Amino acid sequence: AVESPTAFLLGGQPGSGKTSLRSAISEETQGNVIVIDNDTFKQQHPNFDELVKLYEKDVVKHVTPYSNRMTEAIISRLSDQGYNLVIEGTGRTTDVPIQTATMLQAKGYETKMYVMAVPKINSYLGTIERYETMYADDPMTARATPKQAHDIVVKNLPTNLETLHKTGLFSDIRLYNREGVKLYSSLETPSISPKETLERELNRKVLGKEIQPTLERIEQKMVQNQHQETPEFKAIQKKMESLQPPTPSIPKIPKLPGI
């Protein structure tokens, strides 16, 4: 526990790579911080194996109420003891971060929000790659992220972040890219909303050469997992084909008379 504790709330659409935010925070707190990640509690549901057999890929939504309760209980207990905390989230809504920040501030916490700013194509591919990697490891527990769940965060996050900025609950709201570069800080530019920077990054046009290696990696994993029949595989192949340079047409050699 520390004298004046800080809680870092994380945000970013699924597949954006929120884990990379932890290294910036670890540096800031000299590693004196506890990470609370809702996802890690999902597999600890007492009936997890039975639920997997019943619901297979859709198991996540059936264990989420449990992982949410676990997260709330752990935040409550650890914040009573005054530890620095990292609390994973997406930013899909504003209610949860507002409630969490308000509750923690009442216990003497400083609250900050660090959010990933990653082009939506990159994060969507990130969700597919994560699923394929998990599937190769254990098909029963691999969790798929529906594209709809990814897209709803992409759509709502910029406006939600603007709302959170206006509440004044967070002493700093920062945006980071996957390389760990800070793109925005409300502490440095308090009069500017994070909305524009985030929207620009989410909708940034990504060059083919930037995503080609990711597409190739995913294709390879999907072949290994025998997922060639999935709509995702077909979409990946289509995208890869669109990145191929057009084959130059061979000019026809004119026929010489008499040959």
From TrEMBL:
Residue ranges, annotated region (Disordered): 1-20, 240-259
Organism: Candidatus Atopostipes pullistercoris
Alphabetical UniProt keywords: ATP-binding, Nucleotide-binding, Toxin-antitoxin system
Keyword Nucleotide-binding among UniProt keywords: yes
Domain Zeta toxin stretches: 3-186
Catalysed reaction, written as an equation: UDP-N-acetyl-alpha-D-glucosamine + ATP = UDP-N-acetyl-alpha-D-glucosamine 3'-phosphate + ADP + H(+)
Protein name, UniProt field: UDP-N-acetylglucosamine kinase
One of the record's GO molecular function terms: kinase activity
